[in-house]
Amino acid sequence: MTAHSNRAMRRFVLAALLGTAVLAALPVAARKPAAQPVTEKIEIAAKPIPAFEARDPQRRQFGKLLYRGGIALSSTYKNFGGVSAIRVGTDGERFLALTDRGYWLRGRIQYQGQAPVGVADAEMSPILGPDGRPLTTRGWHDTESLTEDSGVAYVGIERVHQILRFELGKQGLVAPGRPIPVPVEAKSLPPNKGLEALALVPKGLPLAGTLIAFSESAADEAGNARGFLIGGPSPGLFGVKRSDDFDLTDAAVTPAGDLLLLERRFTMLRGPGMRIRRIPLADIKPGALVDGPALVEADAGYQIDNMEGLSLHRADSGELVLTLVSDDNFSSLQRTILLQFTLPEP
Asked: pTM (2 decimals)?
Protein backbone atom coordinates (compact mmCIF):
# COMPACT_ATOMS: atom_id res chain seq x y z
CA MET A 1 0.00 0.00 0.00
CA THR A 2 1.41 3.41 -0.94
CA ALA A 3 1.82 6.35 1.46
CA HIS A 4 -1.02 8.08 -0.34
CA SER A 5 -3.22 5.04 0.18
CA ASN A 6 -2.27 4.93 3.88
CA ARG A 7 -3.28 8.56 4.34
CA ALA A 8 -6.57 7.95 2.54
CA MET A 9 -7.26 4.91 4.70
CA ARG A 10 -6.52 6.87 7.88
CA ARG A 11 -8.92 9.64 6.79
CA PHE A 12 -11.60 7.04 6.03
CA VAL A 13 -11.22 5.34 9.43
CA LEU A 14 -11.26 8.70 11.25
CA ALA A 15 -14.41 9.80 9.43
CA ALA A 16 -16.08 6.49 10.24
CA LEU A 17 -15.19 6.80 13.91
CA LEU A 18 -16.50 10.38 14.05
CA GLY A 19 -19.71 9.35 12.30
CA THR A 20 -20.22 6.49 14.75
CA ALA A 21 -19.72 8.87 17.66
CA VAL A 22 -22.30 11.30 16.27
CA LEU A 23 -24.82 8.54 15.65
CA ALA A 24 -24.29 7.18 19.15
CA ALA A 25 -24.97 10.61 20.60
CA LEU A 26 -28.24 11.16 18.76
CA PRO A 27 -30.43 8.78 20.81
CA VAL A 28 -29.11 10.36 24.01
CA ALA A 29 -30.07 13.82 22.78
CA ALA A 30 -33.46 12.55 21.69
CA ARG A 31 -34.09 11.22 25.17
CA LYS A 32 -33.53 14.61 26.79
CA PRO A 33 -36.80 15.88 28.27
CA ALA A 34 -38.38 18.95 26.76
CA ALA A 35 -37.80 22.20 28.63
CA GLN A 36 -40.36 22.60 31.39
CA PRO A 37 -42.93 25.27 30.40
CA VAL A 38 -42.69 28.30 32.63
CA THR A 39 -45.48 29.64 34.82
CA GLU A 40 -44.98 33.40 34.86
CA LYS A 41 -46.24 35.89 37.40
CA ILE A 42 -47.89 38.85 35.72
CA GLU A 43 -49.34 42.20 36.72
CA ILE A 44 -52.97 42.97 35.86
CA ALA A 45 -54.34 46.50 36.09
CA ALA A 46 -58.01 46.95 36.93
CA LYS A 47 -60.34 49.88 36.25
CA PRO A 48 -63.64 49.83 38.19
CA ILE A 49 -66.98 49.62 36.36
CA PRO A 50 -69.26 51.03 39.07
CA ALA A 51 -72.44 51.05 36.95
CA PHE A 52 -73.66 48.39 34.52
CA GLU A 53 -75.77 51.01 32.72
CA ALA A 54 -74.00 54.37 32.40
CA ARG A 55 -77.31 56.09 31.55
CA ASP A 56 -78.65 55.19 35.01
CA PRO A 57 -75.69 54.78 37.43
CA GLN A 58 -77.93 54.13 40.44
CA ARG A 59 -79.72 51.20 38.85
CA ARG A 60 -78.81 47.82 40.30
CA GLN A 61 -81.47 45.37 39.08
CA PHE A 62 -81.26 44.05 35.54
CA GLY A 63 -83.83 41.40 34.69
CA LYS A 64 -83.63 38.85 37.49
CA LEU A 65 -80.05 39.80 38.46
CA LEU A 66 -78.57 42.40 40.80
CA TYR A 67 -75.36 44.13 39.72
CA ARG A 68 -72.54 43.89 42.27
CA GLY A 69 -69.74 45.55 40.29
CA GLY A 70 -67.13 45.01 37.64
CA ILE A 71 -63.62 45.78 36.45
CA ALA A 72 -61.90 46.28 33.11
CA LEU A 73 -58.60 44.35 33.05
CA SER A 74 -55.39 45.01 31.15
CA SER A 75 -51.78 43.83 31.24
CA THR A 76 -48.54 44.46 29.40
CA TYR A 77 -47.82 40.71 29.43
CA LYS A 78 -47.74 39.55 25.82
CA ASN A 79 -50.03 36.52 26.29
CA PHE A 80 -52.74 38.29 28.29
CA GLY A 81 -56.13 38.60 26.58
CA GLY A 82 -58.59 36.40 24.75
CA VAL A 83 -60.11 35.09 28.00
CA SER A 84 -62.74 32.59 26.92
CA ALA A 85 -63.74 30.80 30.14
CA ILE A 86 -63.46 31.23 33.91
CA ARG A 87 -64.21 29.27 37.08
CA VAL A 88 -64.25 31.06 40.45
CA GLY A 89 -63.45 29.01 43.55
CA THR A 90 -65.71 28.47 46.53
CA ASP A 91 -63.98 31.30 48.39
CA GLY A 92 -65.14 33.75 45.72
CA GLU A 93 -61.60 35.00 45.25
CA ARG A 94 -59.35 32.48 43.57
CA PHE A 95 -60.13 31.82 39.95
CA LEU A 96 -58.93 29.71 37.06
CA ALA A 97 -59.40 30.93 33.51
CA LEU A 98 -58.07 30.12 30.07
CA THR A 99 -57.41 32.02 26.88
CA ASP A 100 -58.30 30.94 23.38
CA ARG A 101 -54.60 30.84 22.50
CA GLY A 102 -53.86 27.94 24.83
CA TYR A 103 -52.86 29.60 28.14
CA TRP A 104 -53.99 29.14 31.72
CA LEU A 105 -54.67 32.28 33.74
CA ARG A 106 -55.18 32.16 37.47
CA GLY A 107 -55.21 34.70 40.26
CA ARG A 108 -57.27 36.18 43.06
CA ILE A 109 -60.15 38.66 42.77
CA GLN A 110 -59.89 41.55 45.23
CA TYR A 111 -63.02 43.18 46.64
CA GLN A 112 -64.17 46.40 48.24
CA GLY A 113 -67.36 45.44 49.97
CA GLN A 114 -69.14 43.19 47.47
CA ALA A 115 -67.66 44.85 44.37
CA PRO A 116 -64.57 43.46 42.60
CA VAL A 117 -61.81 46.08 42.42
CA GLY A 118 -58.67 44.23 41.29
CA VAL A 119 -56.78 41.02 40.55
CA ALA A 120 -53.77 39.91 42.61
CA ASP A 121 -51.32 36.98 42.48
CA ALA A 122 -51.93 36.56 38.76
CA GLU A 123 -49.91 34.07 36.72
CA MET A 124 -50.08 32.47 33.29
CA SER A 125 -48.79 29.20 31.89
CA PRO A 126 -49.18 27.36 28.59
CA ILE A 127 -51.78 24.59 28.62
CA LEU A 128 -50.01 21.27 28.06
CA GLY A 129 -51.06 18.39 25.85
CA PRO A 130 -50.69 14.64 26.44
CA ASP A 131 -46.99 14.79 25.52
CA GLY A 132 -46.26 17.46 28.11
CA ARG A 133 -45.72 20.12 25.45
CA PRO A 134 -47.84 23.26 24.93
CA LEU A 135 -51.04 22.59 23.01
CA THR A 136 -50.02 25.23 20.48
CA THR A 137 -47.16 23.02 19.24
CA ARG A 138 -49.78 20.70 17.72
CA GLY A 139 -52.13 23.47 16.58
CA TRP A 140 -54.61 22.93 19.43
CA HIS A 141 -54.84 26.60 20.37
CA ASP A 142 -58.56 27.43 20.19
CA THR A 143 -59.24 26.53 23.84
CA GLU A 144 -62.76 27.83 24.47
CA SER A 145 -64.42 26.04 27.38
CA LEU A 146 -63.61 25.03 30.94
CA THR A 147 -65.25 23.24 33.85
CA GLU A 148 -63.70 22.07 37.09
CA ASP A 149 -64.58 19.88 40.07
CA SER A 150 -62.49 18.58 42.98
CA GLY A 151 -59.16 19.44 41.38
CA VAL A 152 -60.00 17.97 37.97
CA ALA A 153 -60.51 20.33 35.03
CA TYR A 154 -61.91 19.69 31.57
CA VAL A 155 -61.03 21.89 28.61
CA GLY A 156 -62.84 21.96 25.28
CA ILE A 157 -60.85 22.79 22.13
CA GLU A 158 -63.11 24.15 19.44
CA ARG A 159 -61.52 23.63 16.03
CA VAL A 160 -60.26 20.10 16.67
CA HIS A 161 -63.32 19.04 18.72
CA GLN A 162 -61.32 17.59 21.60
CA ILE A 163 -61.93 17.57 25.36
CA LEU A 164 -58.91 17.18 27.64
CA ARG A 165 -58.87 16.16 31.31
CA PHE A 166 -56.33 17.77 33.68
CA GLU A 167 -55.33 16.64 37.18
CA LEU A 168 -54.72 20.20 38.38
CA GLY A 169 -55.20 19.28 42.03
CA LYS A 170 -52.21 16.94 41.87
CA GLN A 171 -49.92 18.61 39.33
CA GLY A 172 -50.99 22.23 39.09
CA LEU A 173 -50.81 24.17 35.85
CA VAL A 174 -48.12 21.86 34.43
CA ALA A 175 -50.53 18.90 34.40
CA PRO A 176 -50.77 17.38 30.90
CA GLY A 177 -54.21 17.12 29.35
CA ARG A 178 -55.48 13.62 28.56
CA PRO A 179 -58.11 13.35 25.78
CA ILE A 180 -61.43 11.82 26.74
CA PRO A 181 -63.84 10.17 24.28
CA VAL A 182 -66.32 12.57 22.67
CA PRO A 183 -69.44 11.66 20.67
CA VAL A 184 -68.79 11.05 17.00
CA GLU A 185 -71.35 13.77 16.16
CA ALA A 186 -69.12 16.34 17.89
CA LYS A 187 -66.29 15.50 15.51
CA SER A 188 -68.38 16.65 12.55
CA LEU A 189 -69.17 20.13 13.90
CA PRO A 190 -68.02 23.09 11.79
CA PRO A 191 -64.45 24.15 12.72
CA ASN A 192 -65.41 27.52 14.21
CA LYS A 193 -68.76 26.43 15.71
CA GLY A 194 -67.52 23.57 17.82
CA LEU A 195 -67.27 22.86 21.55
CA GLU A 196 -67.81 26.28 23.07
CA ALA A 197 -69.17 25.50 26.56
CA LEU A 198 -68.75 22.81 29.22
CA ALA A 199 -70.51 22.10 32.51
CA LEU A 200 -70.02 19.20 34.91
CA VAL A 201 -73.11 18.24 36.93
CA PRO A 202 -72.27 17.70 40.62
CA LYS A 203 -73.58 14.99 42.91
CA GLY A 204 -77.13 15.17 44.18
CA LEU A 205 -78.61 16.71 41.02
CA PRO A 206 -80.32 15.30 37.93
CA LEU A 207 -77.65 14.03 35.49
CA ALA A 208 -75.07 13.91 38.30
CA GLY A 209 -71.63 13.02 36.98
CA THR A 210 -72.49 14.06 33.42
CA LEU A 211 -70.19 16.33 31.44
CA ILE A 212 -72.42 18.53 29.27
CA ALA A 213 -70.82 20.04 26.18
CA PHE A 214 -72.38 22.56 23.81
CA SER A 215 -71.76 23.67 20.26
CA GLU A 216 -71.52 27.40 19.75
CA SER A 217 -74.42 27.84 17.35
CA ALA A 218 -76.38 26.04 14.63
CA ALA A 219 -75.66 22.33 14.36
CA ASP A 220 -78.92 20.71 13.24
CA GLU A 221 -81.34 21.21 10.36
CA ALA A 222 -83.61 23.43 12.45
CA GLY A 223 -80.74 25.76 13.32
CA ASN A 224 -80.55 24.80 17.00
CA ALA A 225 -77.35 24.42 18.99
CA ARG A 226 -76.28 20.89 19.81
CA GLY A 227 -75.79 19.58 23.33
CA PHE A 228 -73.80 16.45 24.23
CA LEU A 229 -74.30 14.39 27.39
CA ILE A 230 -70.97 12.69 28.05
CA GLY A 231 -70.75 9.98 30.70
CA GLY A 232 -73.26 10.00 33.54
CA PRO A 233 -76.52 8.04 33.68
CA SER A 234 -77.95 9.01 30.25
CA PRO A 235 -75.35 9.83 27.59
CA GLY A 236 -76.66 11.13 24.28
CA LEU A 237 -77.49 14.22 22.24
CA PHE A 238 -80.05 16.97 22.75
CA GLY A 239 -80.85 20.35 21.21
CA VAL A 240 -80.86 23.91 22.59
CA LYS A 241 -83.36 26.30 21.04
CA ARG A 242 -81.69 29.32 19.42
CA SER A 243 -83.34 32.71 19.02
CA ASP A 244 -82.50 36.33 18.15
CA ASP A 245 -79.11 35.40 16.66
CA PHE A 246 -77.61 34.51 20.06
CA ASP A 247 -74.82 31.91 20.22
CA LEU A 248 -73.89 29.80 23.25
CA THR A 249 -70.59 30.69 24.92
CA ASP A 250 -70.62 29.13 28.42
CA ALA A 251 -72.69 27.27 31.01
CA ALA A 252 -72.86 26.74 34.77
CA VAL A 253 -74.99 24.60 37.10
CA THR A 254 -76.85 26.07 40.08
CA PRO A 255 -77.26 24.28 43.42
CA ALA A 256 -81.02 24.17 42.75
CA GLY A 257 -80.50 22.04 39.64
CA ASP A 258 -80.74 24.60 36.86
CA LEU A 259 -78.41 25.07 33.94
CA LEU A 260 -77.45 28.67 33.20
CA LEU A 261 -76.49 29.41 29.60
CA LEU A 262 -74.44 32.48 28.69
CA GLU A 263 -75.05 33.68 25.14
CA ARG A 264 -73.60 36.47 23.03
CA ARG A 265 -74.58 38.21 19.82
CA PHE A 266 -72.84 40.62 17.50
CA THR A 267 -74.15 42.31 14.38
CA MET A 268 -72.89 45.40 12.59
CA LEU A 269 -76.31 47.00 12.97
CA ARG A 270 -77.01 46.17 16.62
CA GLY A 271 -73.50 45.80 18.02
CA PRO A 272 -72.78 43.39 20.89
CA GLY A 273 -75.44 41.64 22.92
CA MET A 274 -75.52 39.33 25.94
CA ARG A 275 -78.14 37.02 27.41
CA ILE A 276 -78.33 34.45 30.23
CA ARG A 277 -81.03 31.76 30.13
CA ARG A 278 -82.07 29.28 32.82
CA ILE A 279 -83.03 25.70 31.91
CA PRO A 280 -83.95 22.98 34.48
CA LEU A 281 -81.58 20.02 34.35
CA ALA A 282 -84.65 17.80 34.64
CA ASP A 283 -85.66 18.93 31.12
CA ILE A 284 -82.41 17.73 29.59
CA LYS A 285 -82.38 14.20 28.20
CA PRO A 286 -81.30 12.47 24.99
CA GLY A 287 -83.44 13.65 22.09
CA ALA A 288 -84.92 16.66 23.93
CA LEU A 289 -85.06 20.21 22.60
CA VAL A 290 -84.73 22.57 25.57
CA ASP A 291 -85.43 26.26 26.05
CA GLY A 292 -85.76 28.55 29.02
CA PRO A 293 -86.51 32.12 30.10
CA ALA A 294 -83.89 34.86 30.08
CA LEU A 295 -82.59 36.02 33.43
CA VAL A 296 -80.99 39.09 31.86
CA GLU A 297 -80.43 40.55 28.42
CA ALA A 298 -78.18 43.48 27.56
CA ASP A 299 -77.08 45.35 24.45
CA ALA A 300 -74.46 47.94 23.52
CA GLY A 301 -76.04 50.45 25.91
CA TYR A 302 -74.64 48.43 28.85
CA GLN A 303 -71.15 47.61 30.04
CA ILE A 304 -70.61 44.49 27.99
CA ASP A 305 -68.18 43.24 25.37
CA ASN A 306 -67.69 39.82 23.78
CA MET A 307 -69.01 37.93 26.81
CA GLU A 308 -67.67 34.36 26.80
CA GLY A 309 -67.08 33.10 30.35
CA LEU A 310 -69.56 32.32 33.14
CA SER A 311 -69.00 31.01 36.66
CA LEU A 312 -71.10 30.66 39.81
CA HIS A 313 -70.14 30.59 43.48
CA ARG A 314 -71.79 31.20 46.85
CA ALA A 315 -70.57 34.28 48.72
CA ASP A 316 -69.96 34.38 52.47
CA SER A 317 -73.29 36.18 52.74
CA GLY A 318 -75.00 33.10 51.29
CA GLU A 319 -75.86 34.82 48.01
CA LEU A 320 -75.27 33.12 44.66
CA VAL A 321 -72.85 35.19 42.60
CA LEU A 322 -72.41 35.03 38.83
CA THR A 323 -69.04 36.04 37.39
CA LEU A 324 -68.85 36.91 33.70
CA VAL A 325 -65.74 37.61 31.66
CA SER A 326 -65.23 38.84 28.10
CA ASP A 327 -62.85 37.81 25.31
CA ASP A 328 -61.19 40.88 23.78
CA ASN A 329 -59.91 38.88 20.79
CA PHE A 330 -56.52 40.49 21.46
CA SER A 331 -57.93 43.65 19.89
CA SER A 332 -57.25 47.20 21.07
CA LEU A 333 -60.88 48.00 20.13
CA GLN A 334 -62.26 45.58 22.74
CA ARG A 335 -61.95 45.05 26.48
CA THR A 336 -61.38 42.24 28.94
CA ILE A 337 -64.07 42.91 31.53
CA LEU A 338 -65.12 40.97 34.61
CA LEU A 339 -68.66 41.52 35.89
CA GLN A 340 -70.47 40.12 38.92
CA PHE A 341 -74.19 39.80 39.63
CA THR A 342 -76.25 38.34 42.45
CA LEU A 343 -78.70 35.62 41.40
CA PRO A 344 -81.68 35.67 43.84
CA GLU A 345 -82.80 32.17 44.74
CA PRO A 346 -86.47 31.13 44.52
From this structure: 0.88
